[in-house]
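Q: For a teaching handout, I want to show students what a protein-ligand complex looks like in token form. Below are the inputs, and the small molecule is thymidine-5'-diphosphate. Please produce the holo structure.
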Amino acid sequence: MTRGTFISFEGIDGAGKSTHIERVAALFRQAGRAVVLTREPGGTPLSEKLRELVLHEPMDALTEALLMFAARREHLVQVIEPALERGDVVLCDRFTDATFAYQGGGRGFDWQVLTQLERIVQSQAHAQADSALRQPDLTVWFDLDPQIAAERLASARVPDKFESQPADFFAAVRAGYAKRQAEMPTRFARINAAQTREAVGADVALVVTPWLSRSTA
Ligand code: TYD
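A: Here is the structure, written as tokens, with thymidine-5'-diphosphate included.
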């Protein structure tokens, strides 16, 4: 049985999730929990190599989806499952919802194929029930108008393959996240990321607080 807590953080590029993930890590550490801070695509040496490829090389849409899930499989097996087994808190900067939002929503790739890949990749090794897919206990979705996100990104670093997409791509990514939330409403917490950083931080603290002392059995 899993004892840890698995939280993912999602949103379009420029939504500003990174600083808040650090703060959530600090909250859990203060509560005496061991924290594994990680990201997707990435999180293992092999998955980080796949990240380099998938974020910078042009490729076929199915290839892109397969590489996202290949990186995820390694990450689950090598990092996430062992951490949850130990009872740690796993804070993951993006997880499968990003594949549905970016490859499904943004790229328009087949949602049902993604659902099949999710089922293959996230089946739990010792699960009895078919429905027992590994999913985050909580997903904090930083929701932001793509126009505002674009303004925030304009002054930032050199864009990668996704960050350089036009605004309508991000509108479709946002719609992908909304669709995913509608499919799995219980684990999603939508945060209005258009607020000040302090207000966003307060909202994030509110949704993670119930998890600070909780282990999932
Ligand atoms: P991001 O997480 O924003 O990292 P950084 O802060 O270094 O830019 O970048 C990862 C990019 O990969 C982001 O544009 C979303 C994209 N992505 C997908 O398209 N599909 C996925 O399944 C995942 C996990 C990420």
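A: Two things your students might notice: Strands lie at 5-11, 35-39, 89-93, 138-143, 188-192. The CA atoms of residues 131 and 194 lie 35 Å apart.
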